[in-house]
Amino acid sequence: MRERESEWTELMRQANAGDGAAYHRLLNVITPVLRATAQRGLARAGQPTDQCEDIVQEILLAVHLKRHTWDAAAPFGPWLFTIARNKLIDSLRKRGRRVFVDIDDFTDVLPAEQAREQLPAGEVGTHLGSLPQRQREVLQSIAVESASIRETAAKLSMSEGAVRVALHRGLANLAAKLRRE
Amino acid sequence: MDTNELVRSLAADHGYRARAVSTVLAIALVVAVPVTGAMFMTRLGMRPDFMAATGSPFFMLKFAVTIALVIASLALAVGLVRPGTPVRKAAWLLAIPVALLTAAIAADLALPQTSAWSTRLVGSNSMVCLMAIPMLSLPLLIATLIGLRHGAATRPMLTGAVAGLIAGGIAATFYAAHCIDDSPLFVVTWYGIALALVALVGAVAGRWALRI
Fold first, then answer.
1. pLDDT in tens, chain B (212 residues)
2. What's the CA gap between A34 and A163, in Å, rounded?
3. Is A129 on the interface with B (CB under 8 A)?
4. Contacts of B85 in chain A (CB under 8 A)
5. Residue in B138, B144, B155 with CA at minimum distance from that of residue B25
6. Does A148 touch chain B (CB under 8 A)?
7. Cβ–Cβ of A86/B6 closer than 8 Å?
8. CA distances from B120 to B49, B113, B133 (A)
């Protein structure tokens, strides 16, 4: 457990130093853990686990947009799990349930639980459709068609800077729409 | 969009670097303080004997208490918008203004006075105090909430209440320069009620403004 979290901390430090690959890897390694904790939280609240992936995506967006609030001198795990718990409680409330989620739910996820399959998510996709055209096109190109920023810029006849701005605004808009739901 | 696709777009956005929360909060306050200052100068102004009053310990103590409150609340708020950060130590800083005021009340009650303690508590300007501090704090509260929104408040109501203490504390610092009631008994009662009101407004506003 501790080893895993110190790996995250190390990856996030590298990411902050400008290593994009380390950041991508960090997101990939935390995703299954977030999925397992979201599934468990939903099960405990007596909710169907079919919205699990929506919650995972909401947590990932929050992690991404708020990562500047992580203190590089502190371990990454407590920061991550505080955000995850907050988002999980919020989404359970949104679904009309007041629940108490134990902090332990987020600290002792066994690796075996991480193998659970990924269910389809709908909310982010739905909101994607209501974004301004440029932001939607850029997100489609980068996320779905896995084009790079440069390729996207060429394809949409935009500057790379404009692609970056549209991408960031698009993600921030998605998070805001999820929050307002 | 499946999760792998979302993760890909997040990784691609890694080049975007957000400003530190404390920077955004500082900018917001630098904009709002002159607004409150202008409200103060046009509607209230300094008390006529301001220069003479600076020699009075109880007058100066009002500023010590309100400024200590602002600094402690700022430290607490910055911790509250960093998830996973223990805030207990920062919360203890709030004991500084409380201790200052408690000591001042003890001194006020111990010293020989020309008026009864109840007269000093009621003062002469309590209604102005109750109106002025919340009004002066409004631009500051909006600015503080905007600044803290840039962080990640996992306890939005509590963080909003602390935002109210920051805003109310700065507003009270201005108001103290107008107010002719210097007794700590007056300060604890009327400044206290006004600050509690601003903290309450902050808590309610924080509930919707500060969700991550």
1. 899 999 999 999 999 989 999 999 999 999 999 999 999 999 999 999 999 999 999 999 999 999 999 999 999 999 999 999 999 999 999 999 999 999 999 999 999 888 999 999 988 889 999 999 999 999 999 999 999 999 999 999 999 999 999 999 999 999 999 999 999 999 999 999 999 999 999 999 999 899 98
2. 29
3. no
4. 71, 74, 79
5. B144
6. yes
7. no
8. 19, 9, 19
Buried b (16+ CB within 10 A) or exposed e, B101-113: beebbeebeeeee
Distance (Å) from the alpha carbon of B168 to chain A's nearest alpha carbon:
25
Provide the residue type at A96 as one letter: G
- On whether ipTM exceeds 0.85, the answer is yes
Residue carrying the six token digits 């920062």 = B90
Residue ranges of E strands in chain B: none
Closest CA to A9 of A69, A74, A81: A74
Q: Which two tokens stand for residue A115?
A: 């193998």
B82 touches chain A (CB under 8 A): yes
Contact between chains at A64 and B10 (C-beta distance less than 8 A): yes
Torsion of Cα atoms, B198 then B200 then B205 then B211, to 10°: 120
Q: Is residue A106 within 8 angstroms of chain B, CB to CB? A: no
Place of tokens 């800077």: A161
Tell me, what DSSP letter sits at residue A120?
P
Cβ–Cβ < 8 Å for B11, A61 = no
**Are the C-beta atoms of residues A33 and B3 closer than 8 Å to each other?**
no
